[in-house]
TrEMBL record:
Sequence similarity: Belongs to the HMG-CoA lyase family.
Pfam families attached to this UniProt entry: HMGL-like
PROSITE patterns documented for this protein: PYR_CT (PS50991)
Name the record gives this protein: Hydroxymethylglutaryl-CoA lyase
Keywords, alphabetical: Lyase, Metal-binding
UniProt keyword Methyltransferase, yes or no: no
Molecular function (Gene Ontology), one example: hydroxymethylglutaryl-CoA lyase activity
Residue span(s) of domain Pyruvate carboxyltransferase: 6-273
GO biological process: ketone body biosynthetic process; L-leucine catabolic process
């Protein structure tokens, strides 16, 4: 049985734009987020409060957040440490995400820490965020394969997933950062997580479309009962600290499939596609999303 309703966790403004070579002007980012909200998306990741040298594309977080914080949607932000949480709290953010790695190589590249050092860094962040009554998401990257280490064993992913839940995260997002997952692997991981006590209701999925498997993987996750799906408008994105990562699952491709399955998302596909076409013009290159191209005849 498929779920009747799905929450799309829109990551284009964060995961998408963090990977653009050109830095997008702050007012353009704000307009992007406003248009995404207007298209009916209700959870729109806005930016990251990370070190500006590590992700210069999002160095304007302090300027951007106040330009969109009046929107009647959830605007989660990424915070790696106490400093990031301080910055997010100062601006009135209500949802935060920490971001762990299932592999040592990516933990080092992305956070300058071992996997366990990163978890130790998140511990006081999650505790304080929960004290502040924030909703906390725990991202987990490289859940299927890693550019340096190859295929990632399921038990390794389960260990870090449980550690994130034990810290107090409300929700996990399982990242296929380099887009190598296939549906059987997705189902193996979800089943193993359930067996180890992580309920499907706490699990979101975050697929990248490198091998064209993102929608197949999403369908497998839906059939397993997952109702939170990450996607990026126009298929923007990748990851600056994982070279082989290509774009995220495009929100338009996801909405097209869900609409066909009769699953409610509340998203207006016409408005969303127009927004991604507009953003593609701003970036000076066409959207990689098949659905955006089909609907805009580009
Ligand atoms: P570090 O160099 O080890 O930092 O980086 P540190 O803790 O040693 O601190 C060094 C300096 O940075 C200090 O300043 C701190 O104050 C400052 P100094 O005293 O030297 O002047 N600093 C900060 N400044 C502003 N904001 C902060 C902050 N923290 C420290 N939050 C650090 C460690 C975690 C900071 C760094 O590695 C970092 O910022 N990493 C972020 C990388 C990132 O954002 N990656 C992309 C997101 S993950 C992703 O995209 C995957 C995902 O989409 C899912 C998937 O697809 O898999 C989520
Ligand atoms: Mg990603």
């Amino acid at each position: 049985d498929l779920p009747a309703r799905v929450t799309i966790h829109e990551v284009g403004a964060r995961d998408g734009l963090q990977n653009e070579k050109a830095t997008v002007p702050t007012p353009v980012k704000a307009e992007f987020i406003r248009r995404l909200a207007d298209a009916g998306l209700t959870t729109i990741e806005a930016t990251s409060f990370v070190h500006p040298k590590w992700v210069p594309q999002l160095a304007d977080a302090e300027q951007l957040f106040p330009l969109v914080s009046d929107l009647p949607v959830a605007l989660p932000v990424l915070v790696p440490n106490q400093r990031g949480l301080d910055r997010a709290l100062a601006l009135g953010a209500k949802r935060v995400a920490v971001f762990a790695s299932a592999t040592e190589s990516f933990a080092k590249a992305n956070l300058n820490r071992t996997v366990d050092e990163a978890l130790a860094m998140f511990e006081p962040v999650v505790r304080r965020a929960k004290d502040e009554r924030m909703q906390v998401r725990g991202y987990l990257s490289m859940c299927f394969g890693d550019p340096w280490e190859g295929p990632v064993p399921v038990h390794q992913v389960v260990r870090v997933s449980k550690a994130l839940m034990d810290l107090g995260c409300d929700e996990l997002s399982l990242g296929d950062t380099i887009g190598v997952a296939t549906p059987g692997h997705v189902l193996d991981l979800l089943s193993e997580l359930n067996e180890e006590g992580v309920p499907t209701s706490a699990i979101g999925v975050h697929f990248h479309d490198t091998y064209g498997q993102a929608l197949a993987n999403t369908l497998a996750a839906l059939q397993h009962g997952v109702t939170t799906i990450d996607a990026s408008a126009g298929g923007l994105g990748g990851c600056p600290y994982a070279k082989s990562a290509t774009g995220n699952l495009a929100t338009e491709d996801l909405v097209w499939m869900l609409r066909g399955l009769g699953i409610d998302t509340g998203v207006d596909l016409g408005r969303l596609t127009a927004t991604s076409a507009w953003m593609a013009d701003q970036l000076g290159r066409p959207s990689p999303s098949r659905t955006v191209r089909a609907l805009t005849h580009k």
